[in-house]
Amino acid sequence: MLGPVILAASRSDKMRRFVSAAPGTKQVVARFIAGETVDDVVPIVRDLAARGLEVTLDVVGEDITTVEQSHAARDAYLELIGRLKELGLGARAEMSVKLSMFGQSLEGGHELALANVRPVVAAAAEIGTTVTLDAEDHTTLDSMFAIHEELRKDFPQTGCVIQAYLFRTEEDARRLAANGSRVRIVKGAYKEPASVAIQDKAEIDRAYVRIMKILMDGEGYPMIGSHDPRLISIGQELARRAGRKMDEYEFQMLYGIRTEEQNRLAAEGHRMRVYTAYGTDWYGYFMRRLAEKPANLLFFVRSILTKG
Question: Which active-site residues does the annotation give?
Fold first, then answer.
């Protein structure tokens, strides 16, 4: 029951100010956010790569209100790609982008987001890596999928994300699986109405398994975004039944969560990618991490009480 409340708080300026000022916030944020700048995140990418892990990097900050901010987001990703090129880390690190950060919600936002993200995708391709378009709330998805399809004409390795809790997702998965694209499946972390999304956790898990099977049986490259041991085990079995080799799919987990499991999967020969977020506008991302797991919220509350 706490999840929807926390997700609602993620859109509240009042709660943003309260959480930002709380004494224990910095300690907890550091668990999920790799830093504020490119200089902060580069050593972390190096460390993860040295441990046999791959990375997808997210410059947080989707709540923008001006065209100038959308251009700044584009430039932040171009700066990141430039640093990865200098350090020869392009083969181990891709990028994840939220199109809202590139102006999708502004007037003329579809065209603006496409114009902003295209040079990022092109620059990523030049250093041997790629970009995955993150899924956001259901009202943005038709635009996201259209941009994904457009980008794949020139950059077929461009990935996208689908969310198991949405009723539409099984149909989206069938279309994408037949299209040879890279597809990350997650449960979903936005507050969605019952008219468009499954509300029961067990039903979401069952939908997740059905969609994993569609992806594993298809022609694309599945990316299993989950920390759930049961779903990870089922994913391994579905891959085996589909005759997939270990380099024909991957697992993805968030930075700072289940680190030992990340290392274990990599040691077994699985492709294991760590979703690593950084940046100063961390609030929305942080609140969704709290909403996903009650233990995260308890950790946060204990930190506030300890530091207060």
Answer: 134, 184
